Amino acid sequence: MIRVLVADDHHLVRTGFRVILETEEDIEVIGEASDGVRAVDLATSARPDVVLMDVEMPGIDGLEATRRIVAADTGPAVLILTTFDRDDYLFAALEAGASGFLLKNGTPEALIDAVRVVARGDALLAPEITRRVIATFTRPGMAARTDGRRLSELTPREHEVLVLLAGGASNAEIAAALQLGESTVKTHVSRVLTKLSLRDRTQAVVFAYEHGVVTPRG
């Protein structure tokens, strides 16, 4: 059972998320928070697997609440949901340690899938988000960083996995591309994150483009 905490300052929004999620047999909403402070407290006491986090809330905002929640090694995954399609929110959420970022105008199916994705330890980086990450780190005048020491620690196979991660590939897609079993892919992904000191797949995408491991096509 995936235990979910919903943090949003609008009661109707929280209720709507609860109704959507609790139609699924494997998802349970175990609490609601109307501000960032309460979200942090419940994330600690109720021990959810996933926190759905609004950005703009009273007290402390969702970005600061996310930083505090993920600072704990055993903290839940945080999925940012917002009506604001803004790059500053997107990158602040990624830097805060969020495992995913969704707009509230998405479908119920997309929300349910996102909760399952981050609950199993993956990061949710939709194609449109990937494009914006690429655009940010490849705009004219921005030189790629280099981190040869950390990158040199990757094996050739792990480097291939990082490249595929940067394209937003799932474990199943990486397995198919490299003709490996999914369990083997999970091991490679884990080693890539550990060697590069990255928290999750989202940070791996940012790292790959920021350090010139991959470059955009076209």
From TrEMBL:
Please report the organism this UniProt entry assigns to the protein.
Answer: Phytohabitans houttuyneae
Q: Which UniProt keywords apply?
A: DNA-binding, Phosphoprotein, Transcription, Transcription regulation
Top-level division of the source organism's lineage: Bacteria
Single GO molecular-function term?
DNA binding
Write down a Pfam family by its short name.
Answer: Response_reg
> Where does the Response regulatory domain start and stop, copy by copy?
3-119
Protein name, UniProt field: DNA-binding response regulator
Where are the 4-aspartylphosphate residues found in this chain? 54
Q: Respond yes or no to whether keyword Transcription regulation is given for this record.
A: yes
